[in-house]
Amino acid sequence: MNSQQVQILGNDAARQAQQMGVGQLSVINNANDLVDRILSLINIAIYVLVALAVVFIVYNVVMYIIRGNEPEGKREAAKNVTWGIVGLAIIVSLWGLVNIIVNTFRTNTNNLPNLPNANFVNQK
Questions:
Q1: Please, where are the H alpha helices in the chain?
Q2: pTM of the predicted model as reported, rounded to 2 decimal places
Q3: Residues spanned by the domain of 75
Q4: Phi (first) and psi of residue 36, to 5 degrees
């Protein structure tokens, strides 16, 4: 493969990424766009925190198993597992609370549910 072919492939990949919106931030035009941007950043942070909490819990479970004969080591690992579970519960609760708040104050009226109507009155 020569350098011209590599350049053409690179241009095609860049064009496809641009069409998919990869690497580009959308313009913030109104409050909904701002809320969506903040929510996406919070969701990324939540995913990272959940992953870290799970790794912390699994690590301490392994340490609990490894420290089979050491009562102090087992006690510390069990305490860390407990705090890891508490931390994971707090993270998930905050994620739910943020989503409830965002969906409560959302100003977009395009996604309103269909309400029942009274068209059955005029039917014969």
A1: 3-20, 31-66, 71-104
A2: 0.59
A3: 26-106
A4: -65, -40
N-terminal to C-terminal alpha carbon distance within the chain: 73
Is residue 97 assigned to a domain? yes
Instruction: Specify whether the CB–CB gap between 91 and 49 falls below 8 A.
Output: yes
How many angstroms from the chain centroid is the CA of residue 117?
Answer: 37
| Cβ count near 53 (within 10 Å) | 20
Domain count, the chain: 1
What is the residue whose two structure tokens read 């004969």?
Answer: 69
Output the pLDDT for position 51.
93
CB 42 within 8 A of CB 25: no
- Answer whether residue 96 is part of any domain: yes
- Residue 78's pLDDT is what? 92
